[in-house]
Amino acid sequence: MSRVTARRKTTRLSPTGRIQRPDTLAVEEPLEIRVDGQSLTVTMRTPGDDIDLVHGFLFGENIIGSADDLVTARYCAGTDENGRNTYNVLDVRLRAPVPLHTRNFLTTGACGLCGKTALDEVRTHTRYPIRPDSGTVAIDTLAELPGKLRAGQKLFEATGGLHAAGLFTTDGALLALREDIGRHNAVDKVIGWAVRENRIPAAELMLVVSSRASFELAQKAVMAGIPILAAVSAPSSLAVDLAADSGLTLVGFLRGETMNIYSGEHRLT
User: Fold this and answer.
1) Could you list the residue range(s) of the whole structural domain that residue 242 is in?
2) Which residues are paired to 94 by β-bridges?
3) Residue 11 lies in a domain
4) CB–CB of 217/230 below 8 Å?
5) What's the pTM value of the predicted model, to 2 decimals?
6) Is 97 part of any domain?
7) Could you tell me the CATH number of the domain that includes residue 169?
8) pLDDT in 10s for each residue of the chain, 269 residues
9) Residues with catalytic function
10) Into how many domains does the chain fold?
11) 159 CB-near residues (< 8 Å, 6+ apart)
12) Does residue 56 lie within any of the structural domains?
């Protein structure tokens, strides 16, 4: 399997002088996702948990509804200049064929479209609408989650360059944490874990991210039936609109005892 970190030479400048030393960086490599032998997409990701990533991506795009919809997921032959397998092409076989050539990815559905169209796309395609009575969390418990997420970020500790996503129970227990150079990939990885563990719809779970809450991340939470999304940074306007439209509780700027609640305040007790 490809490495998730790499060493590169760097020159560090500081008030005390100039130091040349190696630095540890997060690896970024392409992953081509093929479905039944047909190329579907290429995403730039940090290698690792690729099976979770593919499950989460295909679920978020409404291509699969459960892990049972996949028969196999296998790496294809692909080598670097030294003849080693790069593990950068993954082919999945579906139990029932899906016409991929006509598919418009939901994750890019907002590009060039108005907000209403993007919201309608998610509302039309989600398999698990968020129930108004699903999931409540104590504010004190919610305030502790960024610290728990940060404590589990082993690769961030080494590189300082990775996003994290975590799935928590409403009493604050961490079930799954994944890191990736792309925040959408990190979310796909934890949702893919939930798909493979038969935890979808995730009506009693919370998604916490170390980044801002974009429309794309809110969309992935809604598709999985996750009622609460919390981010340590800001949400986008369209993410707030989607949260209000779908019944998602959206919290931003979650930092210690302070937070902004943009929608679904009734779930915070």
Assistant:
1) 139-267
2) 70
3) no
4) no
5) 0.89
6) no
7) 3.40.140.10
8) 457 888 889 888 889 889 998 988 888 899 999 999 999 999 999 999 999 999 999 999 999 999 999 999 999 876 666 666 678 999 999 999 887 754 456 555 444 456 777 788 887 788 999 999 988 999 999 999 999 999 988 876 777 778 999 999 999 999 999 999 999 999 999 999 999 999 999 999 999 999 999 999 999 999 999 999 999 999 999 999 999 999 999 999 999 889 999 999 999 99
9) 111
10) 1
11) 5, 24, 25, 26
12) no
Per-position b or e across 59-86, b if 16+ CB within 10 A of its CB: bbbbbbeebebbeebebeeeeeeeeeeb
Contact present, 128 and 244 (Cβ < 8 Å): no
| Number of residues in the chain | 269
Main-chain dihedrals φ then ψ at residue 6, nearest 5 degrees: -140, 155
Chain position carrying tokens 């049972």: 68
Alpha carbon distance, N-terminus to C-terminus of the chain: 44
* Adjacent-strand bridge partners of 116: none
In a domain, 180, yes or no: yes
Nearest C-alpha neighbor of 213 from the set 222, 225, 205, 204: 222
Cβ atoms 70, 195 nearer than 8 A: no
Q: Do the strands 29-35 and 89-94 form a parallel or antiparallel pair, or are they unpaired?
A: parallel
